[in-house]
């Protein structure tokens, strides 16, 4: 099963742009394989404007977000694992989605464990016999 996180990121970005807002992502810059300008990292995180006017070659796949943007007038290529994205929201009204910190469990495993948290063998039947 594919992870839901990239779909949520794409949906919030599209919604923000269509409504005239500026979509921003919060990235955990200390996560492995994150390639962002370190001089703009604060408290281990970086806030990035991902509006189409602010980025070029935007490519959001199941596991990676890749794009180029200008920082201090200098073009930079960024590569961000989707797992390192902590939130996406509209700058103007703060509406969006925050994602929980990864606990080392894969997103597919988390989705499966959340879907069936109760042990079905411990539950009684839901139906009653009516005569």
Write up what this structure looks like.
The protein has 131 residues and is α+β, with helices and mostly antiparallel strands. It has one domain: SH3 type barrels, CATH 2.30.30. The chain is 18% helix and 32% strand. It has 2 helices and 7 strands. The protein has helices at residues 5-18, 107-115; strands at 23-28, 45-49, 55-60, 64-71, 74-81, 85-90, 96-98. It is elongated. The chain starts with a helix and ends in a 16-residue tail after the last helix. Residues 103-117 have low confidence and may be disordered.
Name some characteristics of this structure.
32% strand, 3-stranded antiparallel β-sheet, 4-stranded antiparallel β-sheet, SH3 type barrels, alpha+beta, 7 strands, single chain, elongated, 131 residues
């Amino acid at each position: 099963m594919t992870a839901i996180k990239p779909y949520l990121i794409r949906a919030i970005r599209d919604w923000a742009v269509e409504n005239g807002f500026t979509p921003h992502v919060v990235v955990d810059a200390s996560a492995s394989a994150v390639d962002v300008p370190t001089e703009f990292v604060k408290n281990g995180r970086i806030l990035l404007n991902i509006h189409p006017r602010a980025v070029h070659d935007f490519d959001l796949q199941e596991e990676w977000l890749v794009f180029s943007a200008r920082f201090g007038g200098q073009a930079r290529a960024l590569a961000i694992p989707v797992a390192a994205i902590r939130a996406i929201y509209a700058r103007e009204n703060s509406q969006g989605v925050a994602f929980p910190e990864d606990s080392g469990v894969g997103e597919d495993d988390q989705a499966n464990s959340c879907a069936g948290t109760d042990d079905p063998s411990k539950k009684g039947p839901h139906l009653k016999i009516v005569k």
